[in-house]
Amino acid sequence: MIRVPHAFALALGQLGDRRVLAVLAKSMAVTLAIFVVAGGAGLLALHRWLVSLEVAFSAELSALAAMVLTVLAGWLGFRIVALAVLQFFADEVVLAVEARNYPAAAASARTLSFAQDARNALKGIARAILVNALALPVAVLLLATGIGTPILFWAVNGWLLGRELMDMAWLRHRASDADALPLSGLTRFALGGIVSALLLVPFANLLAPVLGAAAATHLVQSRKRQPGTDQP
Length: 232
Description:
The chain is built from eight helices and no strands.
């Protein structure tokens, strides 16, 4: 776990890499496009609902609705959308980090088939749905504390993100389904927890998924170099 800050420092140092910048630009463009389309669809649905209630849809009300939808989408959906988009480009981040820092690993990595990618994505979605469903009743009970619910969701997202980011960097190197996970639970949680926290910070949240994928690559590859231990 103590290697996690060093992994993020290495990831930050490669943000200027042309290949990483290309992934960052593509993922940001697609993420923002999804929010624009979703926001427009939500605003249209709200407009139709208000019209059905015979509520005047003034310019002021339109602006207020757009603002509310934007805030809600950013708060509730950005993490999910950004990471879902990154799934399509994660290999490019991992390959860029491996090519620069771990050329032997890049040369020996296998290409995952579409079926394997789809299966892994479905496993991740199933984990997210199950864990969030289990956490929801507890989150409701913690509303009275004021801070308990945000902390719980940060912890849940940290656990989920740690596993997803590790898989991005690991699955191309896994020999078989029986292989043990390359990172300990605490390391995965630290990795995901940092990314989950960064996703709450304006502007930093645009970099967080790419930084997380790059940091996960460093963690997995350094772990492979030191079998039998999760220490530096």
